[in-house]
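Next comes this protein.

***
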Amino acid sequence: MNAIQKLLKKLERVPVRNFIEDAARDSADKIADLNREQLNKGFGADGEKITPKYRNNQYAKKKFASNPKPGLGTPDLKNKGDFQKGIDVGVSSVGIQFEANDVKSTRLLFKYGEVVGLSPASVVKLQRQILLPRIQTNLKSHFRK
């Protein structure tokens, strides 16, 4: 058996699905942080700016002064931080599940819609900066055996 055939044999035994699930499970806190990061910039899970905008101009200006990233009037869903801290991530064989556990979650989700979860831009960041490096490390370890 030549070197290429040996490598192909090893590749057939690589538990890729397990590597991906393990990387995601080990990175659950970082995945939740990606959701918080996009909220702080005023983006929901759909990648669009969070709406509706603040109705009270005084409040909008106050929020903008404390966090200008979303833009004037765009919510970041952070007052004391409890809603964002209450975002949890679970990983299973069916994927990544987000959960909002703050007492205000139901009301905020009803008003602002799909804000818990990753936007397309955050998914790319997750893949490239978090999951891929972990999967590469696991692959290297697997091939050293």
Summary: Residues 7 and 138 are 16 Å apart (CA to CA). The mean pLDDT is 93.
